[in-house]
Amino acid sequence: HYVRLMDDIVIVHDDKPFLHTVYKELNSIVTEDLGLCFNAKTCIRPISQGVEFVGYRIWPHKMTIRKQTSLRMKRHLKAVCDAYNRRELSLEKALQTRLSYKALTDKCDCRELERKLTNMFVLTHSSKEEIDAERKSLGIIGNLRPDYREAEFDYNRLIQYCEETGTCNQTVSGYGGN
Fold it and tell me: What is the Cα 155 distance to its own chain's centre?
């Protein structure tokens, strides 16, 4: 069996010597004809160890998000919350990020990761004075963009936004609702 998406390739076969032959032939084509090389993740191993493919780790009986991918998601989500706190990011952009991560976790067996992401997704705003003091201490001159001067985060406002835009239909309860 052969699966490819862009530059991610998985070949599944029950004959290990056959896979070594395929690897040598592909490596020859990639290096000689294309002037490229396989990365360090390229290997031949039993399917019982799982296969890393397009950000997931896949076994015959389950699928999870790769550890590196989940760490990147956590760091980015923290940065999104911090940017929202400083009023540098709109509520809509923050929600888009969170919902995209929810879509990724919904596809696999990672309830604990989803719980952690939900718990860390806390949107609040600093006061203008706190933001100005922080910006001054960092040597940043100038005002914040006026279109990002939003009211304090309000769960009812989130629900209203979701109803008006037709988004978030099934995920609103994941943000602290019932």
Answer: 23
Query: In degrees, to the nearest 5, what angle opens at C-alpha 156 toward C-alphas 150 and 158?
Result: 60
Condensed to tens digits (0 to 9), the pLDDT of residues 109-166 reads 999 999 999 888 888 877 767 766 766 776 655 544 333 333 334 455 555 665 666 5
Whose CA is closest to 123, among 88, 94, 166?
94
Give pLDDT tens digits for 26-55.
989 989 999 988 888 788 888 888 888 888
CA distance 45 to 67: 19
- Listed in sequence order, the residues at least 6 apart from 168 whose beta carbon sits closer than 8 Å to its beta carbon are 95, 99, 158, 161, 162
Residue with tokens 């084509």: 29
How far apart (Å, rounded) are the C-alpha atoms in residues 92 and 83? 13
